[in-house]
Design brief:
heterodimer, A: globular, B: alpha+beta, eight-stranded antiparallel beta sheet, two-stranded antiparallel sheet, globular
Chain lengths: 120, 156
């Protein structure tokens, strides 16, 4: 079962993403509410994939992606943000994210993106 | 404030409320609020706007509306007024502001937002120096949202 780390500052959003993944054969092994915690949890848990919010306190998601890619260049990270403008998507992809999901999302979109990223 | 700087917020609200709550919001006529002003409802979600638009948006939502929004966002599940339902409302506001930023980007303006802060209390009074444009919004009969916008185009 693929292990997922869910990163979002909103407890509600973490719960929704966890629920979608847990119900569809993925194992959410950890959660983090800011970029610093995400880096710590990534090192500790070594998940197969990370879902990453962008707008977060302390350290934003794009900075966290860069730090995680330095730890593990093969890390698979999916951005999951309410900020859908092109410049933000480009920043995220350049930082090393595999895909970009704009909130609000449908469960199928998350599952499709996770499966695709895991297959790559 | 130029209407073209208010429209992205209205478009985003309409878009997100439709998608997330499944009902088209009804906007009341926007008006300029004098400060200090007090908020009739218990929750105040504050989101900062940075970049080529600068300022903040304060969204006032009551407990009942909060419960109704959270329940709708969880597929109709019964919910209580607690940290989780407040988080759901704060996320709804985050999506509205995030989508507003995307609309500003399509007008060629680079705008970012801060993560939301939620205040809870009775008659929270807000004092601020900027002009406030207030837009009351009704979503069906059970959800009422008051959006207070105080953002300015940053001088180039």
């Amino acid at each position: 079962m693929s292990k997922v780390l869910v990163v979002d500052d909103a407890g509600f959003m973490r719960m929704m993403i966890k629920d979608i993944l847990n119900k569809n054969g993925f194992e959410v092994v950890g959660e983090a509410e800011n970029g610093h915690k995400a880096i710590e949890k990534f090192q500790e848990l070594r998940p197969d994939i990370v879902t990453m919010d962008i707008t977060m306190p302390e350290l934003d998601g794009i900075a966290a992606v860069k730090a995680i890619k330095q730890i593990d260049p093969a890390a698979r990270i999916l951005m999951c943000s309410a900020m859908g403008q092109q410049a933000m998507v480009i920043d995220a992809i350049q930082a090393g994210a595999k895909d970009f999901i704009v909130k609000p999302f449908k469960p199928e979109r998350v599952l499709e993106a996770v499966s695709k990223a895991l297959a790559s | 404030m130029d209407v073209k700087y208010i429209n992205p917020f209205l478009l985003a609200t309409s878009d997100i409320v439709n998608q997330v709550l499944g009902v088209a919001p009804v906007f009341e006529k926007p008006f300029i609020k004098t400060t200090p002003y007090s908020n009739a409802e218990e929750l105040l979600v504050i989101i900062g706007v940075t970049g080529e638009m600068n300022g903040k948006v304060l969204i006032n939502i009551g407990k009942e509306s909060c419960i109704n929004i959270a329940s709708q966002m969880m597929g109709g599940m019964p919910v209580e007024f607690n940290e989780l339902s407040k988080s759901a409302v704060s996320e709804l506001c985050n999506m509205i502001l995030g989508t507003s930023a995307t609309h500003f980007a399509s007008q060629g303006m680079s705008v970012n937002i801060t993560s939301p802060t939620v205040l809870e209390g009775h008659n929270i009074t807000v004092s601020q120096k900027e002009q406030v444009i207030c837009i009351p919004i009704n979503v069906g009969n059970e959800i009422k949202i008051t959006v207070n916008i105080s953002t300015e185009r940053k001088a180039a």
